[in-house]
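Progress against Task 2.4 (sequence-to-structure conversion) is shown through the following example record, which the project officer requested during the mid-term review.
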Amino acid sequence: MREGREIRPLQTESEWDDYTTLSMNAYPGIRATDEAARRRFKERGQELHADPIISVVGLFEAGEMRGTMRLYDFTMRLHGTDLLVGGVGGVAVDLLHKKERIAYDLVQYFQQHYRDKGAALTALYPFRPDFYKQMGYGYGRKINQYRVHPSSLPKGNRQNVIFLDESHRQAFEACYARLMAGSNGLMNQPESTLNMLFSPASTLKKVGYWADGQLQGYLLFSFEPVPNGTFLRNNIVVRTLLYENSAALRGLLAFLRAQADQIETVIFNTQDEDFHLLLHDPRNGTQNLMPSVYHESNTQGVGIMYRVIDVPRLFAQLAGHNFGGQTLTVQLNLRDSFWPDCAGVWVLQGGNGRITLDPAAKPDVAIGLDVAEFSSLFIGATSFRQLLAYGLADISDPAYADAVQALFYTANKPICHTAF
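C-alpha cells generated for the chain above:
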C-alpha cells in the first residue's frame, strides 16, 4: 500500500456522510439525488455494516476518504466442503483521485485481509470484468436471461404452491441450507439480506412449494411494466428459482404458467445452461436468427469471478475431496503478477484422488496457466481440456491431458445466488 494510506472500518457520522457522497459519485446509477434518498443510502450502508459477516471500510489519505468497499465473510460450499471465502462489493474511488492506484490498494488489502483470516479463495462481481481479470480473477458460471410467454412453461401441479411471509422464514432458511449442502458454489446469505427479503418494505414476491411438512423450493420475483405500455401490461422478472426436486420445480413453473392472463413475458435469470429444454417455445421474441438457422433463445452475461489467494491452504482445506480418483504427480506452474504469493511452482502429489503438496516429489507432468484460469478451473467453471484447446494452459506431455482433465473435473458447475 502507498505510504500514508490507511484502510479501516468507518467510525464516525462524518465518515458515513463521505462514504455516501463517494459511493453515489462512483455509481451514479444509484440516483440518490435528494436528501431523503441520501439518508436511506447511508442508513442502508450502516445496516450492512452491522451485519456480523459484513464490514464497510474506507481508504484514508491526507485526512480524507478516497476509497471505500464492503467486505463479506462468506461460507461457500465447494466440492463438498464448507470454506471461508472473502467477498468484496461496492468498490468506489473518489472522482478526484482516479488513476492513483486506490482500487489496486483496496483489492490488495481485501485479499490480504482474507488470507490473514484463513481464506484460500475470494470472490466478487466486477464493475468491469477486464479490470479484475488483470488482477487474477477468473470467470465463474455465466447467467442466462430467457424471456418467454407463460404458456411456454410446462404444466404441473401447483396445489402445493403458497405465498411466503415472515412465518416461513425458518423453513426458508432450512430449505436454502439443504440446497447449499448439496451444491457446488452456493454461499450463505447475509442476515441483512434475509431481513430485507422478509421485511414489509421488500418489493420481491416470495412463493414456495410446500410438501411433506417442509419447503422444498421457492421463487422470488417482481412485476415489471412493459416499456411504453399501459398499466395493464406487465412482465414477471424471476430473481431466484431454487428447488430440491422436479416436483417443486414443476409446481413453481406451473404457478408462473397460470399468470398468462395477466402477464406478457416471464423473464428468467438463471445459471442453468439447459433451461431451454423445459420450454415449449424457447425463442425469446426477438425473431433473430443466427447462421444457418438458429433461433435466439436467450442472452448471456459474465458476472461473478473467483480467485485463489493461497494455493497450499486451498488443497489443505479440500484434503477430503476426491480429485477424480487420479494417482499422478503434477507440477503446477502458476503465473500471478498481482499476488506473487501464488506465483511459482507447486507440486501436486495425487494418490487415489487425494492431493497433497510435496515440493520434493518427482512430477509425472507439468502444466502452466495463469491464476485467473486456474481459479475458474478449480471451482469447476471450465475444464482443463477447454483451457488447453484455447491456448490458455499448456502441458509438458499431452499423453497426460486426460488424467489432468479428470483431476480437476466436476460434474456440478458452480452456482451463486448471493448478491453482494
